[in-house]
Design brief:
The protein is mostly helical. The mean pLDDT is 95. Helix 4 runs antiparallel to helix 5. It has one domain. It has five helices and no strands.
Length: 117
């Protein structure tokens, strides 16, 4: 089974379990898959990889928005960078905890073992 076939099977399986499409495969993951990056869906990823991926994505995005919208004129760049790092770390750990909790609740196997035969 190809990566894309596994993802489609997962989306159908989780839809039957009441899990929304954006929870099972958020837009960031869909973009990576379209670009040919075969990362496991977030419900199958490790805590560390989830924390890093979501933290970097959020920290960079939030930092850029805050810099150009509010901070550019009245905040030192070092403080803005520290605030962005902190926000990214907090968001990354929170999202990782949510996805790992959800995966345990659904009793999902490892991505390599999905779908169960």
């Amino acid at each position: 089974m190809t990566h894309q076939e596994k993802v489609e099977h997962l989306l159908n399986d989780l839809a039957h379990r009441g899990i929304g499409k954006r929870t099972a495969a958020p837009p960031l993951y869909r973009l990576l898959w379209r670009l040919g990056v075969e990362v496991p869906p977030p419900l199958f990823a490790s805590f560390g990889s989830l924390a890093v991926m979501w933290g970097v994505f959020f920290g960079v995005g939030w930092g850029l928005v805050m810099w150009f919208a509010f901070w550019r004129d009245n905040m030192p760049p070092a403080i803005a960078l520290i605030a962005s790092l902190f926000a990214g770390a907090l968001f990354g750990v929170t999202m990782a905890a949510y996805y790992r909790w959800r995966a345990r609740k659904l009793t999902l196997p490892r991505w390599e073992d999905y779908p169960p035969q």
